[in-house]
Amino acid sequence: MNKKNVAFFSVVTLALALMALIxxxxxxxxxxxxxxxxxxxxxxxxxxxxxxxxxxxNTSFELESKLKGATNLPADKIRLQSLQDSVNTLGxxxxxxxxxxxxxxxxxxxxxxxxxxxxxxxxxKILAAVKNSNTQQLKLNIDxxxxxxxxxxxxxxxxxxxxxLRDDLQRTLDTNTDQASKxxxxxxxxxxxSIIAILLLATIIIRRQSQQLKxxxxxxxxxxxxxxxxxxxxxxxxxxxxxxxxxxxxxIGFGNLLDGTDLNVKQKEYVEIIKSSGYNLxxxxxxxxxxxxxxxxxxxxxxxxxxLYDLFTRIKKMFSATIxxxxxxxxxxxxxQIPKHVVGDPDRLQQIFINLISNAIxxxxxxxxxxxxxxIWVDEEQKFYxxxxxxxxxxxxxxxxxxxTIFERFEQLEQGAQxxxxxxxxxxxxxxxxxxxxGGSISVYxxxxxxxEFNFTCILEKAERVEEAVSNEVSATYSFEDYRxxxxxxxxxxxxxxxxxxxxxxxIPRIIDNGQEAVNLLRKExxxxxxxxxxxxxMDGYTAISILRRELYLxxxxxxxxxxxxxxxxxxxxxxxxxxxxxxxxxEELLVQKMAxxxxxxxxxxxxxxxxxxxxAIDYNDNLxxxxxxxxxxxxxxxxxxxxxxAQWLKDKTDLAAAAGQEDTxxxxxxxxxxxxxxSSLGPDHSVYKIIIDKGRLLHNGQTVAADKCNSFxxxxxxxxxxxxxxxxxx
Length: 731
Prior knowledge:
The chain has 731 residues and is an alpha/beta fold.
């Protein structure tokens, strides 16, 4: 038995003993109180009886003395009435004495009562003889009274009764004294036990209090250690985010730039792998950071209006290439009663869909994915909608023993060395937390080899008005030619990347390496916009912006560009004095939009360069000199090449029309690249090749497809091919 148990049982035993002692003391207290009450009543009764006994003795002697000399008494009515009253009083007192006596004194009281009854009887006979003047009867009764000597008998018995009453009262007092002694003893024992108990309890309380204070101190130390650990964790995550995102920024950025150049099929494949791997690593970093925010309770849910139907369309486009590559079918359905515009967090909702749909595609090889949205209930008064979203696939399914754990951290369907799919195992954990933060819940139904169905709910508010997003086409054509932009970035790869991005918008930025150089330069020169990294050598971004705002009073917009994406970083940047915040890897479209917004404040509107789309801009050349210079005068080889070109074009033309109809920009890019490879042997100056190069980039702006331009593009190339190739190909 350990010390805690011994202390516990000791306290319990002491408490029980104290309770028992209190009960016994209470018992004797009640007994003593009752005895005291009885003794007091008996004492009062004894004093009363003593008084009455004294009165009986006095009355008996007085009455006997008067009646013995009654022979000389005249028949005076007043005197006779006085004697009669004495007789009556004597008889009454004797009766009372007999009635109130009890216990051992009752017999003596009855004896006195009997004697007095005899005296009363004789006395009444004497009084009657006096009234009737019956001398003979009077003399006879007086002699009898003298002979019986009743007065002395009453006196003796009364004296004996008084002694008996005194003895009985003494016994009662002795008993009370004994009870009082016992009560006093128990009270002393109780007091001693109480003092001991109080001391023990006080000792225990003091020890517990000391232990509690010690525990509080230990908890404070543990809390401080945990805070230090948390700060270290946050700092580690921030640094990790920065260190990972900085090279990712260059990796993804240059991948996108490289993807926009002329590449052959193999090169295109390699670039796609580089981009895909970069984005996968970015998703992993985001998952880790999102989980950190959730655990810290700092993940915020936005409350802004957005177009729910556009969100579904955008998500479909995001997965269209993957769906097509795997040969799957993707369908979505939205209940027409769901309002088009709602208020909520579109980014978090999209994050939920991306996680669930990515998993569905990852584990599905045949069939497809169905996404649907329905209504559970509507609060018309408050305009709240509880919606149900379902993502159903026909994939491998989830074993029963895994369903209960898939929402736990780092839990994955595949384990060990046989894993075929990547991932951190955090996606569904984040999804569950996001759904719960949006007022909903998530559930899953699945059978092995029959597919899975994830269902989640959330509460959204109907929006009265939503301003539709501005088309991204404009930002893609912005020209910043007349502006002065300063870039403060220490990473050489990012410097080159930004230089290439800005070159597409006619901007040659001034690039320097650290905050100190920025401060020195901005003391002397004026720029329209500054883009500044946070973590730099010599002087970091926060120190630099503090000097620029508080010492130089610089009003120029300064956008923070950093790989730090921990919670509170945006607020920290704004409070430090930055005008805005850009996270790395840099989203080119968002960067251009932000730059256009702040550069407009200078009073000069960023201009969009005119795209030369007219036929006059293209120097048509329909001859096959370039091709013949390569293959020589071999007509059969020439005809064979031209025949294959035409066959490939017929296939590409159909695919291009379909991709344009589906607004699949990625498919259009792939087809344009393939077309450049197909017709590259015609030479860079040939009309077909030049149209693909010059007009192909106008078919879409990255998200929206220009259907009329696609149709015109197909018709123009088709006409040229029919004109220049069909005549030379062998049938």
